[in-house]
Design goal:
Elements (H helix, E strand, L loop, with lengths): L6 E3 H21 L9 H6 L1 H26 L6 H15 L1 H10 L4 H29 L4 H6 L3 H16 L4 H16 L4 H8 L15 E3 L2
Length: 218
C-alpha cells in the first residue's frame, strides 16, 4: 500500500513493466525444446510450439512498444494507474502458460480458447490502463488526442473475443484471428509519436505541461 506523500515516477513504472515483459519473453524461449532428431521431420514436429512462441513474442513486443509510447505521452501517474498497470502485467504473465499449452496441443479447442481468453483479458486490461492515464491527464490532453478512438485496439479485442467460441468450431479459424491481430500490429502505430513531434517545445516540455513526471500516489 502506498503511503500518503510518497511519489512514484513514470520512469520507475516503465522500468518495472519492461523488466516483467523481458522476463516473460525469456521464460517462453526457455520453454522451447530442441528437436528430438536431426532431420527435417524432427524440426517440423516442433513447428506448432515455435509458431506459438513467435505469435506470443510479437504480441508481447507490441504491448511493450505501445506501453512505452503511451508513457512517453504521460507526465503524471496516480495510484489507480499503478494498479491498472499491475492488472495488465497479471494477464500478460499468463501468456507464457497458454502459449506453452496451445503450442503443445495444436488443433485442440480448449488450449486455443484459453489462449484467446488470456489475450482478450490482456487487451481489455491495456484499455483500462489507457483510460486511467487519460483520466489522470484530462479529456483535453494530448494523450487523449493521440489515442483517439483506438480503432486497432478495439478490432483486436473483437478478434480475440470472436476467437474464443470459434476455437470450439474450428481451432484453425481462431488461430487465423490471432495471426490477423499480429499482422495488424506489425504496421507501426505512430499516433503518439506524431503528437510528440508536432507539439511545440517550451518551458513545459514537448507536451506543454509544467508538471513534473511524478505525482503523489493516492
Amino acid at each position: 500500500m502506498a503511503a500518503s506523500g510518497l511519489t512514484m515516477s513514470k520512469g520507475r513504472l516503465e522500468a518495472f513493466s519492461d523488466g516483467v515483459i523481458a522476463i516473460l519473453i525469456t521464460i517462453m524461449v526457455l520453454d522451447l525444446r530442441a528437436p528430438a532428431g536431426t532431420d527435417a521431420h524432427a524440426l517440423f514436429a516442433i513447428a506448432p510450439t515455435f509458431g506459438a512462441y513467435v505469435l506470443s513474442f510479437i504480441l508481447l513486443g507490441t504491448y511493450w512498444n505501445n506501453h512505452h509510447h503511451m508513457l512517453q505521452a504521460a507526465d503524471r501517474i496516480s495510484g489507480t494507474v499503478l494498479w491498472a498497470n499491475l492488472h495488465l502485467l497479471f494477464w500478460l504473465s499468463l501468456v507464457t502458460f497458454v502459449t506453452s499449452w496451445m503450442g503443445n496441443h495444436p488443433g485442440d479447442a480448449v488450449p486455443t480458447a484459453a489462449y484467446g481468453t488470456v489475450n482478450l483479458l490482456a487487451a481489455c486490461a491495456y484499455r483500462i490502463l489507457q483510460f486511467t492515464l487519460i483520466r489522470a491527464h484530462g479529456a483535453a490532453s494530448r494523450l487523449q488526442r493521440a489515442v483517439g478512438s483506438d480503432r486497432k485496439g478495439m478490432i483486436s479485442i473483437a478478434l480475440f473475443a470472436a476467437a474464443i467460441p470459434l476455437a470450439f468450431v474450428r481451432p484453425w479459424i481462431a488461430d487465423t484471428a490471432f495471426i490477423a491481430v499480429v499482422l495488424m500490429w506489425l504496421i507501426p502505430d505512430r499516433r503518439i509519436e506524431m503528437q510528440f513531434h508536432s507539439a511545440p517545445l517550451g518551458a513545459g516540455g514537448p507536451f506543454g505541461t509544467d508538471e513534473t513526471d511524478t505525482e503523489t500516489v493516492r
